[in-house]
Amino acid sequence: MIVTQKKPIEELMAMLGSAKRIGIVGCGSCATACATGGEKEIKELKAYLESQGREVPVTAMADYCCMNLGVKGTLKPFQNQNLDAVVVMSCGDGVQTVSNNIKVPCYPSNNTMFLGEAERFGLFKEACHLCGNCVLGTTGGICPITRCAKSLVNGPCGGAKNGKCEVNPENDCAWILIYNRLKDLNQLEKLSQTRDDKGYQDVSYPRTINIRGKKS
């Protein structure tokens, strides 16, 4: 799940500037789960903008703001509305997808925080850095890139104390967690495997993945 947080309303209003007619697009997936872009949040933002003298002639909820074809259909009611701006209540990818499909300035109402797991309703924990070179098979399913504050890939630093991280003592040391998990799985031999340090010099952004292959 892509975890988002609402921007301060003052920041959003500053981005909107003098925009008078504003559309709002919400996301029925991650942003709804995070309470940053569901039906309730759309209604609240619409009411606030109207209380500030703005017009909100159209709102819509995309199933997934990151799905291009679905967004195209969602935005059909936005055409010919003479909008000055569209507020997109999703992650940053959703904002870009909406922006690619409408010739109106688009603005994010959220800050995109991380890819995480829902531990329980309303509580999200960062789980993946989307680094593109997954080592979970050798670390017992615990990500050292995310769970270690220093993203160490070959064991802990020397600063852990009482099982806690020296950078943030509220967090468990990732490598102690990895050791205990591998021990439980009878796979401690994996600790002796050397993993390449994470380097991003060979990564060319933006990346594209095409599972359908090249069209002839």
Label this structure with key terms.
216 residues, alpha/beta, Rossmann fold, 3-stranded antiparallel β-sheet, elongated
Q: What report would you give on this structure?
A:
The chain has 216 residues and is of the alpha/beta class. It has helices at 9-16, 30-33, 39-51, 68-74, 92-99, 144-147, 174-184; strands spanning 2-6, 21-27, 55-62, 85-89, 106-108, 110-120, 123-128. The protein has 2 domains: 2-113, Rossmann fold (3-Layer(aba) Sandwich), CATH 3.40.50.11860; 131-192, no CATH class. The strands form 2 sheets. It has a 4-stranded parallel beta sheet, with helices on both faces. It has a 3-stranded antiparallel beta sheet with strand order 1-6-7. The protein is elongated. It starts with a strand and ends in a 32-residue tail after the last helix.
Q: Trace the largest sheet across and list its strands.
A: 3-2-4-5
H/E series, N to C?
Answer: EHEHHEHEHEEEHH
Uncertain ranges? none
Radius of gyration using CA atoms only: 22 Å
Morphology call? elongated
N- to C-terminal distance:
35 Å
Strand content: 15-25%
The CATH superfamily of the largest domain is: Diphthamide synthesis DPH1/DPH2 domain 3
| Total domains | 2
| CATH C-level label of the largest domain | Alpha Beta
- Mean pLDDT figure: 90
Q: What can be said about the biggest beta sheet? A: 4 strands, parallel
Number of distinct beta strands: 7
- Counted by DSSP, the helix tally is 7
Tell me the CATH topology of the largest domain.
Rossmann fold
Structural class: alpha/beta
**Percent helix range:** 25-40%
